[in-house]
Amino acid sequence: MLFASIVLMAWAAFAAAQPVPVEFTGQVRVRNENDGRDFNSDTGMKSFNPMRTQLGITVHPVEDMKVFVQVQDARVLGGEDVSTVPGVSDPNTLDLHQGFFQVDNLGWEGFGVKFGRMETRWGNERLLGVTDWNNIPTAFDGGIVSLGRERAQAQVMWSKLVERDTPVVGTPDTENSDRTLLGGIGTVGVNEYASVDVQVLNVRDKVTVAEDDDAMLTTVAGRVFGEAASRWDYSVEGAYQVGTQETGPATEVDLGGWMFGGEVGLTFGAEERPVRFGVGYDHLSGDDASTTDKVESFNTLFGDNHKFYGLMDVPQVLSSAGVRDIKVNAKARVWSNTDNVVSFGGEFHNFSAAETAVGVESALGNEVDVHATWAYRERFIPTLGVSAFLPGDAIPGPTPGASADNAYWVYLQGVVSF
User: Considering Cα of 381, then 119, then 331, then 367, what sign does the dihedral take?
Assistant: First the structure.
């Protein structure tokens, strides 16, 4: 919105004139994507160009206190309404992405609060993260209370996901019909080789004032991760979900899913040109169609699925059938000097549905992702990526009775940050 940008610029001018520490940060990211993920070789690949621009200001009024405001414009280039003035953004693309205050060591060392709109990353972002690959990354409206010591940290967060009340004076209450998140995470460094984090996330959704649409889902998750002998790294995690979804005045279904995941990696080679090789497995439970009073598929909640289940983000991979994912990945820094770092990476996934009916195919297919990244003076980072998905029999074809064709995806991205 135009007003947000005017306010930000005015505040920036005011902040620059004040005798308090001020930091400016920003990023411009432009990407070209060539997308053939429809599994139909007759349709060709569509091309489009997402662009994201972010500008942030951090002000430190006093020690252990900060205010951060970040505006963001996210668009697909050329996507504005042709009736508008050329070059003028669609009014819905510019918005306040983050705006919060944070106070650390409030009353005693390690205790802090944070309130407003904010990006939040918990653990490895399996269940709650930012999904930075998206043109519009995730931000939460709410507050965080934190407590940290040398080897242990804990956070409790409350977030309003959907507000269905209106602040207009005189309008009636909507019977607490909001969607909310209440969660906590604790992380403990057990020793130099192992750390543990535990999360509890509760999502409540009251869709309308009716008595038959309450939904409640509680997720309990744990992860053990660390390094061994300086070359090996590992991560093992699991989660269990329980809840209910009302389906009528006197009926409901239970919700109960689970997941397990793990990866082990080995880093070798010279310090200036390290190579890491990793292998892993993820299992997300699927829904058993024979149990009509329970939904057993695992809900990934607010996780960064792009990081875990293939860079192509093929929608058929994450469905109510769950998924089994056998994966192999590698990355290497192949050349570097004072101003340049060139890296290559790749990953392979073998996907299959975790739960299918008798006689129904479970093989989803294989995905291969490769990418090359060049970091120039740490600020300019172009990346070229090429991916292919070889579908299994569980991926439907473009027409009834036809087999799915191979799917391809290519992108070229440039990022400048300051």
Answer: negative
pLDDT in the model for residue 383? 98
Phi-psi region of 310 (alpha: psi -120 to 50; beta: other; left: phi over 0): left
Contact assessment for residue 20 and residue 408, using Cβ atoms and an 8 Å cutoff: no
For the cut 90, the answer to whether the pLDDT of residue 259 exceeds it is yes
94: its two tokens: 């510019």
Q: Has residue 207 got a pLDDT over 90?
A: no
C-alpha 86/C-alpha 81 separation (Å) is 9
Predicted local distance difference test score (pLDDT) of residue 363: 96
Q: What is the residue-wise DSSP string for 153-192?
A: EEEEEEEEEE--S--STTPPP-SS--EEEEEEEEEEEEET
Q: Measuring CA to CA, which residue among 176, 180, 243 is closest to residue 210?
A: 176
| Pick from 192-201, 250-259, 335-344: least confident | 250-259
What is the C-alpha separation between 122 and 144, in angstroms, rounded?
12
- Average pLDDT of every residue of the chain: 90
- Structure token pair of residue 113: 């609060």
Please give the Cα distance from 120 to 122 (Å, whole number): 7
Tokens for 353? 């549905």
Q: Is 80 exceeded by the pLDDT of residue 126?
A: yes
| Cα end-to-end distance, the chain, whole Å | 23
Residue 75 in contact with residue 95, Cβ under 8 Å?
Answer: no
**What would the DSSP string read from start to end of 342-410?**
EEEEEEEEEEE-S---TT---EEEEEEEEEEEEEETTTEEEEEEEEEEEE-TTSBPSSTTPBPPPEEEE
Q: How far apart are CA 301 and CA 318, in angstroms?
A: 12
Task: Provide the pairing of β-strand 251-255 with 294-295.
Answer: parallel
Percent of residues in the chain assigned helix, strand, coil, to nearest 5: 5, 55, 40
- Is 111 strand, coil or helix? strand
Q: What is the pTM of this model?
A: 0.89
